[in-house]
Amino acid sequence: MTGRDFKRSTAARVLSGDSDSDVELRGWAARKHTVGGLIFVLLRDGTGFIQISAKKGLTEPASFEEAKSVTMESAVVVRGTVKDDRRAPGGKEVSSVEFEVVSRAEPWPITKTAVKSRSFLFDKRHLSIRGPKAIAAMKVRAEVIGAAFDFFRDNGFSLISAPTFVQAAVEGGSTLFPVEYFGKEAYLSQSAQFYEEASLAALQKVWIYQPAFRAEKSKTNKHLTEFWMIEAEQAFADQEDNLAVMEGLLSSMTRRVLERRQAELRTLGRTLKEFSLPLPRVTYDEAREIAEKKGFGFEWGDDIGAEAERAISLSQESPFFITDYPLSARAFYHMTYPDRPKVTRSADLIAPEGVGELATGGQRIHDQADLMKRIESQDLPSSAFSWYLELRKYGMPPHAGFGIGVERTTRWIAGLKHIRSASLFPRTVSRISP
Ligand code: 4AD
Ligand code: MG
Q1: Is there an atom of ligand 1 within 6 Å of 360 CB?
Q2: Which of 145, 299, 334, 348 could join 344 via S-S bond, C-beta 3.0 to 4.6 A?
Q3: Is the pTM of this model over 0.90?
Q4: CATH architecture label of 7-103
Q5: Residue 77 burial by Cβ neighbours in a 10 Å radius (0-12, 13-18, 19+)
Q6: d(CA 374, CA 73)
Q7: Looking at domain 125-422, what is its CATH homologous superfamily?
Q8: Where in the chain is the domain with CATH 2.40.50.140?
């Protein structure tokens, strides 16, 4: 120990120049190489990566030996002096005086020869999340979520919470995960929408951020069985008001990432462009024609399949809406147009580049008799929706809302090939570990 006063700092602060010159850094040895008698360790500390050097004469003798023998991913504490060095990543280096291995790592199992498949990396996800791309994706994801908190606060929406154990199927019975609930039938929540609707009379404009569960058997690059959803709902609002919130939210998420996460976008090789509002709109009928022309035609009334959605997504430069879905492709609660009883006042927010759906929103039926008729016409068990129906007896104005998938949105903004890369520990039809 030198007795010098090294101030706690971080890689990010050192690189930005906002740091004392004698610093202490705590992190992990991401890489090591030796040039002549010089040892270079790339230190990762959660804020970024910074080069540490160790040199005989400058580094204390015992510390020099520690640096020399440090294994990849060991946890280390380094004390040293910040120096400008054009050859170092980020133009700065910390010349170590003291180098302490706090927890020595065994040989790192994720080597080029060991990685035979993408799924190996996800089997080792508890370790592979330390990679620069995984870190960059998580930083982008955090900005997406952070932007939502600011956007809703600035626009007067109250944050609520809702249960995860539920009895009603918001989005239809086929993707429910049943759970044993003391002898009662229960499921994991697919969407908090009904709880949002109940909260309207108390709070007028609400939003929520919580997990949603779908027993999606489909193995695709955009389906998880557990994902995080941001949902919003407002009273005395129609579908136009709703679309404005949807596009405003996506725009502020995108801007936030562009402002704060340029380095991460570069790490991910992502060119993200800002887009202007209002977003373009394509009706379901027009979308059907686009798909048809590209050879992915489908029947009017059907949901838009994966290939057709991809073709439609590729037809636009910026995110856009597909509006006016047929009732047959939508959940029971959707309001239709008075003169077009088979067409709903709903929309999907679609990302370009072939990515597809990020969000779904619409205006809800607020009249009790109309909702009852809809439930009966679709042969749904009205008992499961008793409190949802009862809301309509006690002052339910026109209202509308939407849900946007956090991982789908992160996937598009960060330019990730597969949705699982947008989740720290993804859950898919074939994965429930780690
Ligand atoms: O389109 P969805 O099913 O709509 C609802 O759940 C509405 N009740 C929301 C509302 O109006 N409050 O789901 C909303 C979004 C989708 O657009 C998609 O981004 C995401 O949630 N999502 C999934 N993300 C990952 N994996 C899955 N299996 C997903 N299912 C839906
Ligand atoms: Mg949807």
Answers
A1: yes
A2: 334
A3: yes
A4: Beta Barrel (2.40)
A5: middle
A6: 58
A7: Bira Bifunctional Protein; Domain 2 (3.30.930.10)
A8: 7-103
